[in-house]
Design brief:
Distance between the termini: 80 Å
Number of helices: 2
Largest sheet: 2 strands, antiparallel
Order of helices and strands: HHEE
Strand order of the largest sheet: 1-2
Radius of gyration: 33 Å
Structural class: alpha+beta
Number of strands: 2
């Protein structure tokens, strides 16, 4: 966790000034350091936890916590084998008559 980041007065240190200047010239950033607050506000607006900002291997990393939706397991109701009022089809037998039983007797 980077202490102070996301606070209105935190310091901003662009890692690559050429890329930062290019984004500024294109109007994609207003000023250095304003993006972290917008990221935090966007997470709050989406009812997500605030991300974790960290210096990592000479760079900068933002970790977003996933939104975990826990739903209880649902066991679907097994459908009826045959709808009410519908009789079971006749049993099929092999040509030689094996595997057939006469249920009528």
């Amino acid at each position: 966790m980077v202490l102070g980041i996301g606070q209105p007065t935190h310091s901003s240190k662009p890692r690559n000034r050429l890329i930062a200047q290019m984004f500024y010239d294109m109007g994609m950033i207003e000023k250095y350091g304003s993006g972290t607050g917008r990221v935090i506000n966007a997470c709050k607006a989406a009812n997500l936890p605030e991300p974790d900002f960290a210096n990592f291997s000479g760079g900068f990393r933002i970790l977003f916590a996933p939104r975990i939706k826990v739903t209880p397991p649902v066991t679907p109701q097994a459908p009826l084998k045959y709808p009410p009022g519908v009789e079971a089809p006749p049993r099929l037998c092999r040509r030689n008559g094996e595997g057939c039983s006469d249920d009528s007797s």
